[in-house]
Hints:
Oligomer: single chain
Structural class: alpha/beta
Largest sheet: 8 strands, parallel, barrel
Distance between the termini: 14 Å
Amino acid sequence: MIEYKHSTDMLVNKAREKGIVIPGFNIPYLPMMEPVMRALHDTDTFGMIMVARLEWIKFKSGSMKSIRDEYEKLKDRRFTRLHLDHVPVIDEDNLHTNFERIIAEAIDLGYDSVMIDGSRLSLADNIEATRKIALLAHNAGIPIEAELGAVMGHESGPLPPYEELFASGKGFTSPEEAKRFVEETQTDWLSVAIGNIHGAISAVTRTEKKIEARLAIPHLKLINESVNIPLVLHGGTGIAKEYLMQSFKQGIAKINIATAIRQPYEKLMNDSVSTAQEAVYREMLDLINNQLEIAGSANRIF
């Protein structure tokens, strides 16, 4: 039997070299994990199972340990790794978090990779916080993801008009700052802001259709050339396929998907968990086969 012990960082770098993408799926409700992992298995596709801090605070994933325990029951290392998504230094409510303790706990629990989000800090403070977590993660032998720029959508209150945001480039990741950031922090992967936005998480707006975002591909190309490490696209739901396909050729090696699978689950979960799970499974098949065109990727990156 083949042992699938390849490091997560090696797999993400291989995806980048081949111009394909590894999707990461957020799990805000524990029963969602089974259909996500079943779809990855059934399509021979590699992906990440993820949980972010906001998903155990504002949704019902439980805790990092709950997600880890459920993952251990279902995992198949040929198709998945476990990733700790957004742990902000300052969260969406502008509150400081105990980010070091949270990330240290995830490492102790056996997460395969972790993310620190210092994007609400100054550049210097983001570098300092990220460098600290990079050292912690690398000492444990796992990769770290960080964010530079402002991928909006999680903040309280309405966003400015999207077209205004895109035209102004407000919050876009600076290629020059990205080069400095990567060199000084030694982050393994970089989440970038290039027009992508997160799905809304407030109870009032989380059921609404997500804004159809675009990607500034020429800007992404500049970032890719300046840092030469795998780039990550957050807010992957609702972006036109033509932009996604171009982005995978310009360094995007990981894409985060949450809203696309959360909303079908939430729509049905109070009637029947099993029916809600099947809705997630069907959406997963469409994402893998049609929207991302990555069915069979497990064979290409191992």
